[in-house]
Amino acid sequence: REDIMLMGAGGLLKEISERGQLRQDGTGTAPAREPKIAGLLLAAGSSRRMGEENKLLTDIDGTAMVARVAKQIQKSKAEGILVVTGHEAKDVTAALQNLATGFVHNSDYADGLSTSLKAGLNALPDDIDGVIVCLGDMPLLEARHIDQLITAFDPIEGRSICVPVHGRKRGNPVLWGKQFIAEILAVTGDIGARHLLEEHADQVIEVPVDQDGVLFDVDTPERLAEFRNRST
Hints:
This protein is an alpha/beta fold. The chain is built from 8 helices and 11 strands.
């Protein structure tokens, strides 16, 4: 699936290494302060392709998969973790009780990904600079990947949407500047905000990461088996 991110290719993309050099040698404009980036974790899906098992609650070395993702967000520079629940909300909430800073329930989760995005975005505080939208079924995501996106974020320099890239493929999570929240709220169905990456290509920065955790999601029993084989 293409979810939130694989949301379109093409456009004029800025080269992060060049921008980073400008910042380091003092000729660019550094942010006046560390940006306040909220962590949003989508954990509402019904895992239909997994059969009866809720993939988010799958045990991985004694930890539910969704909690494994939440721990990485917690370790990162993101400001808190707001979790969107839906399917088996009580069990998901219990798995994240000591990790999340807030929960919002999406009773319309069966209507597609956009409903969870809206539920989460509408519950975020007003004083944030942006939001990093994470998926609960990406067990190889690391805190450093999130931090790379936050470090790259700089609206003044035209870097308002930060997308991780590994092997020329775009992945998740995606960091969105707060100015795009209204447009994301207008999205419907299960396509995420893919088209917004194309419409705002001049604000997109691709952030290279050295590990494929930003591409790897668990949405079938076969993918879960692949993950377990990789982890042994």
